[in-house]
Specification:
single chain; alpha+beta; Translation Initiation Factor IF3; four-stranded mixed beta sheet; 2 helices; 4 strands; globular; DNA/RNA-bd_Alba-like; Archaeal DNA-binding protein; DNA-binding
Length: about 90
């Protein structure tokens, strides 16, 4: 049996999915026993990552806690791309 509560699940924001679908994926992960989630937006998806976090906060209130925010950049396909990373913890 795998203990998913100690596992950190990372969600990378995508333009191909709606914000609502991505929010529901994170809520589903919390409901399946995941306690820690990392939400990461690259480049143009940074604004969507903020929108997803705000929607999660609106829907769950104190049910989601912001543990930290990291900003930085990574080299992908020979280009440096900025990112925004939210570290979230289940609060319910």
């Amino acid at each position: 049996m795998i203990n998913v509560s100690s596992k950190v699940v990372q969600f990378v924001v995508s333009r191909n999915k709606s914000i609502e679908d991505q929010v529901l994926e994170i809520i589903s992960s919390f409901n399946q026993g995941v306690n820690d989630v990392e939400l990461k937006g690259y480049g143009r998806e940074i604004d969507r990552a903020v929108d997803i976090y705000n929607m999660l906060k609106d829907k769950l209130g104190d049910g989601v806690k912001l543990e930290g925010v990291n900003i930085g950049s990574e080299v992908k396909e020979k280009r440096r791309i900025s990112y925004l990373l939210f570290k979230l913890r289940k609060g319910f």
